[in-house]
Amino acid sequence: xxxxxxxxxxxxxDAPLLWxxxxxxxxxxxxxxxxALAGRLPAAGRAVNLCRDRHRFALGLAAALRRGxxxxxxxxALPATLAALHEPGAPAPYALVDDAALDTGGLAAVFVAPxxxxxxxxxxxxxxxDFEAVRLLTSGSTGTPRPHAKRWGPLVANIAAExxxxxxxxxxxxxAGLGVVATVPAQHSYGFESSVLLALLGGxxxxxxxxxxxxxxxxxxxxxxxxxxxxxxxxxxxxxLRAGLPLPRLELLLxxxxxxxxxxxxxxxxxxxxxxxxxxxxxxxxxxxxxxxxAGEVWTALGELRxxxxxxxxxxxxxxxxxxxxxxxxxxPLADQLELLDARRFxxxxxxxxxxxxxxxxxxxxxxxxxxxxxxxxxxxxxxMPDEPEDGVARPVALVVSDTLDAEAVRRALRQVLEPxxxxxxxxxxxxxxxxxxxxxxxxxxxxxxxxxxxxxPRFTVAADHPAFAGHFPGHPLLPGVALLAYVMRALAAQxxxxxxxxxxxxxxxxxxxxxxxxxxxLEVRLQATxxxxxxxxxxxxxxxxxxxxxxxxxxxxxx
Length: 560
Known about the structure:
- By secondary structure, this protein is of the alpha/beta class.
- It has three domains: 4-349, ANL, N-terminal domain (Rossmann fold, 3-Layer(aba) Sandwich), CATH 3.40.50.12780; 359-454, GMP Synthetase, Chain A, domain 3, CATH 3.30.300; 459-557, Roll (Thiol Ester Dehydrase, Chain A), CATH 3.10.129.10.
- Strand 26 (397-401), helix 10 (407-415) and strand 27 (426-429) form a beta-alpha-beta unit.
- The longest helix is centred in the N-terminal third of the chain and has 18 residues, at 152-169.
- It is elongated and about 90 Å long.
């Protein structure tokens, strides 16, 4: 007979399980509402839980479990993604929504609202331990969602191990009474495990909201009675601290693993009075290990997990690292490179696929990002490795968000902490990076963003009193070609790698002037390496309708 495990961990059913706008929802009341919602679900099917409100998301999860329905969690809520969830021979999916206007891609929708008339229940239902409670769908390299089944028994063990570790870090016997506010969505595996499941199975309570902006995060924390915990990401945490708002005292800070400097962790602990704990995991294995960032770089596995290494299975594959034990029932490869200290402790070296080689030196993009984000004045930043070599050598590019630094200041700071091979020749100052709602920066999204940023060139505004207009021509001022070429040379001087191709005396090999340019024109100069030693240029007038090329041509190296 299959073991059955409770929907809720042992707890006081009259104590808050969730907080909605500062008002408590007891576990007994939640159970009654979930039972009422279960009666409204289809007799058969799979639930696609799209509820943004964490109270309603938890109700949808619990109701689906009561009906024996697996909950699908796609990588996004785009209509095309949802429409693709139909599988031949599988129960039809339906959407659980808290926004009646949401386009569900043709899926039948069930609107989730707490039934305030439902009687509280003191009967905690059980769920078969081998039941596929959740199927996480993550986009692979082809964009086709890859399924990761999560059975109820391993989920229970996973959260029990996390709750025990977090209680240990916060000097508590358990997480009972701890109110959790999370900035990450419940549909993401980290947000799912460390907010909704930490309440259902870990003994904590959870705020229903998903605050994003600093003022909203502070307001949400203040609505939840102490002791409080904040579940967040390094990106959200850094934004919160830079806002300069007074923060309520916290019992615990929990962060996803990403570039998180010890300095930022120490600043967060000083501002909140809490210990900051990082969780390391992956979709395949769930949560694997934790560390207190300010206490050192060593990670310790959760619960009964054990780690080991073995040679890669294919030709040319290096060492790979696996984990098993506790909630990970089969040997599961990790996507990261580790330095194992023993079967339970390790240092994290970075993603196996983000190791880069430049001029015979090796590093990882994660390590470069770490050093970049440590620079005072850098609000956010990331390194990107282009596919196309520059002058025959692949070199990293840094994309940086800062209100106080320029590209050269960033390079000067990086020279203090990086080997010369990894100091980027190109530092692109950008207004923001294309992070997802979780704060995650995907490789595909960053590559697309970087290529777009590189396609843009330096921009100039032609002053109305430019001296060339005085005699060129009276009553109908036009910028002469030589003045346009002066903007090209200024743009070239700002891009050292391209300027180096042409030496100290670049010359114009070819130039075409394609459209008149007048006072106030907004110009963008686009440069691109061509041939062995040449640089092609285009001058675009951005304020024209539509934008148009005003000049084009090619530069070459002049006589030494």
